[in-house]
Design a protein that fits this description.
The protein is an alpha/beta fold. The protein has 3 domains: 2-157, no CATH class; 191-388, Rossmann fold, CATH 3.40.50.300; 393-471, Orthogonal Bundle (Helicase, Ruva Protein, domain 3), CATH 1.10.8. It is built from 18 helices and 8 strands. Strand 4, helix 12 (339-352) and strand 5 form a beta-alpha-beta unit. Helix 5 (97-109) runs parallel beside helix 7 (137-157) and helix 7 crosses helix 9 (225-246). The N and C termini lie far apart (66 Å).
């Protein structure tokens, strides 16, 4: 409760001062408006699941009640009976007058007052959710909707989101799952196991990035709406648990291990790489690197060697995240297959190092369900599955265009129509390549365009950077 009191006080000071500077009335002139904003937000989060527990109402009364004009001095029971917070959840659905004022001012003069509001309200929202030992799914979902609403209001006003550059393009190009971006300065390469007896990971870590920066990059990915929502909700849950731990409150252990199910090329590796850094940012792991592996790099052909290979890979992953591609392959081959030894080693290591390791098991949906059922230790640890749906034709066309942006290629109208035709005509059967298919289509177009313009003695920049319909051919041609 004392933490909420301090956070409300800090929010009122910060936003009150911001409003005072904007209006020219002085830093203390608008403190009451800032307090009403905090009251509405805290009340809305408390009301979002309809429970309004005594501990939540007591915290509201302690943090906000005495500061209101006139002061609100009642018991939690009387507050509930009076229905003061009933329906307050609807406040989260649209920008408040105060936030709209800050957004319009930022759009006019290029300042970032709305970013201060965004950061302050999300801190308040998470701290309010942390009043419960286990934040309800409705509370976490409400915070996610509130965050999305704030960001959409900034987008509509032409203000770059928190975590994006203050000027210039709104985000890195292309932000395309399955297509590697240029590494950020200091970012170590992802590590993959090999046949060598030892596995090492570059100990140089990427610069720590804030949650807003990482979530902004997640938001920029094409499609994946369900995946993004799941990652945001998981992030909020972990932030809330971290807040409780920092304040000496009881916590429950939230599993960090995940199943990513879906076809190839749907962004599983890209999201895992971001999630490993998100885990670092919220203090779940210490390093935030990603190690990628599969059966061929875990399972050996001799008795006793599989456990060693798997152990080395897991040790390389400590402090970060291990992504096991086609994880279900470990369970194939019967009871005497060495893959079972890898699974047993995996389960024991997860138990022994539960505080500083996250594992993502990835693969086709049906096979992943079977894989988790092969070992009780897996089933009890992989309790959350995120499904990566196939991209729509429009999303795949956008991925193609973003690849072009990154490499300075554009499409003529007939080329763009041909891209859409080929993507739309590709059978969406099991194993459809999604973004990988589009990357192959793009690289094929580059090759055909090069052959087309090679005979030209003095090609123009337009020749060099424009695809025509003749360049857009099926991948296997």
């Amino acid at each position: 409760m004392s933490s909420l009191i301090a956070e409300v006080s800090g929010f009122v000071d910060d936003i009150g001062s911001t409003l005072g500077a904007l209006s020219g009335d002085g830093r203390d002139a608008h403190r009451q408006e800032a307090l009403i904003e905090a009251s509405n937000l805290v009340g809305a989060i408390i009301d979002s699941d309809g429970r309004q527990a005594d501990a939540e109402l007591d915290a509201f009364l302690d943090a906000i009640g005495p500061r209101l004009q006139p002061p609100l001095i009642v018991t939690a029971a009387r507050l509930r009976e009076g229905g003061m917070l009933d329906g307050r959840r609807t406040w989260l659905g649209s920008p408040s007058v105060l936030f709209d004022l800050l957004v319009r001012a930022d759009a006019r003069d290029g300042e970032r007052r709305s970013h201060r509001y965004y950061a302050g309200t999300l801190r308040l929202a998470h701290l309010t959710a942390a009043l419960d030992l286990v934040p309800s799914t409705e509370e976490i979902a409400a915070i996610d909707r509130f965050r999305t609403m704030l960001l959409q209001a900034m987008d509509a006003a032409g203000i770059n989101r928190p975590g994006q550059p203050a000027s210039g393009p709104a985000g890195p190009i292309p932000g395309v799952p399955g297509v590697p971006n240029a590494p950020r300065p200091g970012t170590p390469p992802t590590a993959a196991t090999a046949d060598a007896p030892a596995i090492t990971v570059d100990v140089q870590l990427p610069p720590e990035r804030g949650i807003d920066d990482l979530l902004a990059e997640l938001d920029e990915l094409v499609g994946l709406d369900n995946v993004k929502a799941e990652v945001r909700r998981l992030t909020s849950l972990l932030q809330v648990q971290r807040l409780r731990e920092e304040r000496g409150l009881p916590t429950i252990e939230a599993s960090k291990h995940l199943v990513f199910s879906g076809n190839p090329g749907t962004g599983k590796t890209t999201v895992a790489r971001l999630l490993s850094q998100i885990y670092r940012a919220v203090g779940v792991v210490s390093k935030g690197h990603l190690v990628e592996t599969d059966r061929s790099k875990l399972v050996a052909g001799y008795v006793g060697q599989t456990a060693l290979k798997t152990q080395q890979t897991l040790e390389a992953s400590l402090g970060g995240m291990l992504l096991i591609d086609e994880a279900y392959a470990l369970a194939r081959g019967g009871e005497n297959d060495f893959g079972r030894e890898a699974i047993d080693t995996l389960v024991k290591f997860m138990e022994d190092h539960r505080d500083d390791l996250a594992i993502v098991a990835a693969g086709y949906t049906e096979e992943m369900n079977t894989f988790i059922d092969t070992n009780p230790g897996l089933k009890s640890r992989f309790t959350r599955t995120i499904n990566f749906a196939d991209y729509t034709t429009d999303e795949l066309v956008l991925i193609f265009l973003k690849l072009g942006e990154k490499h300075q290629y554009t499409c003529s109208d007939d080329a763009l129509a041909r891209v859409q035709q080929l993507i739309d005509g590709e059978p969406r059967t099991r194993g459809f390549g999604n973004a990988r298919f589009v990357r192959n289509l793009f690289e094929t177009a580059v090759a055909h365009q090069a052959m087309r313009i090679a005979p030209l003695t003095d090609p123009t920049d337009e020749h060099l950077t424009t695809f025509t319909a003749a360049d857009i051919v099926p991948v296997d041609n």
